[in-house]
Amino acid sequence: xxxxxxxxxxxxxxxxxxxxxxxxxxxxxxxxxxxxxxxxxxxxxxxxxxxxxxxxxxxxxxxxxxxxxxxxxxxxxxxxxxxxxxxxxxxxxxxxxxxxxxxxxxxxxxxxxxxxxxxxxxxxxxxxxxxxxxxxxxxxxxxxxxxxxxxxxxxxxxxxxxxxxxxxxxxxxxxxxxxxxxxxxxxxxxxxxxxxxxxxxxxxxxxxxxxxxxxxxxxxxxxxxxxxxxxxxxxx
Length: 236
Ligand SMILES: NC(=O)c1ccc[n+]([C@@H]2O[C@H](COP(=O)([O-])OP(=O)(O)OC[C@H]3O[C@@H](n4cnc5c(N)ncnc54)[C@H](O)[C@@H]3O)[C@@H](O)[C@H]2O)c1
Fold this sequence. Notes:
Blueprint: E1 11-15, H1 20-31, E2 35-40, E3 59-63, H2 69-77, E4 81-84, H3 91-96, H4 98-119, E5 122-128, H5 156-173, E6 179-184, E7 186-188, H6 200-209, E8 226-228, H7 229-234
Parallel strand pairs: 1-2, 1-4, 2-3, 4-5, 5-6, 7-8
The structure holds nicotinamide-adenine-dinucleotide.
């Protein structure tokens, strides 16, 4: 039995719910009869992604940061399930501001999980395939060793921040916190930002529509797994 199959009538808090994947998860939760509150600071997400739910009595949007412990104490206490997606995401954003990446993804995740612990609230922690790093052990397994690049390369701060979230979540299971960790792979579909912040699918589509050549790195024979965003949401 999946968490989503028992979600009807549950009050769910979705951090980062105004973002690309989060907004599709909100669609899914509401369609299954859950009540949904989104907390998002709208740094990368957009109200437009949720415009079709504004006015729905089962839905509310709170503009604020997961690093705000007072706000999160109030919100977590009012909900039965947390889906924690809020993060600094995308290679460009991570490289532009590695400090903020660590602040939001590490400190923000700590705030969310420590509040969840107080109430023993079921929490889904969203991690990333990025944590597999440069592993060549295909197909990846969750019990594989992870092969990350050096700390002098700031892009790895994202993978490390996501791994921290996994470790903290697993450590808190020893204190009784019910936790599920999900490692999403690259998602594509409607609402994917076309600003080229790191999504190769968005970049290819924009380049194709504007008649530019597609950017191909190395010999172009690299392989990568992609998931349609509604399927990503359905497996959260
Ligand atoms: N997109 C992918 O292919 C992919 C792959 C693996 C993992 N993930 C993970 O899935 C989750 C969602 O990613 P996405 O692609 O929808 O990205 P996104 O940028 O569209 O969504 C992230 C959301 O978090 C919000 N946010 C950022 N900082 C915040 C803060 N301090 N407080 C509150 N909200 C904040 C942003 O405004 C945004 O709405 C992230 O945790 C990401 O690491 C995504």
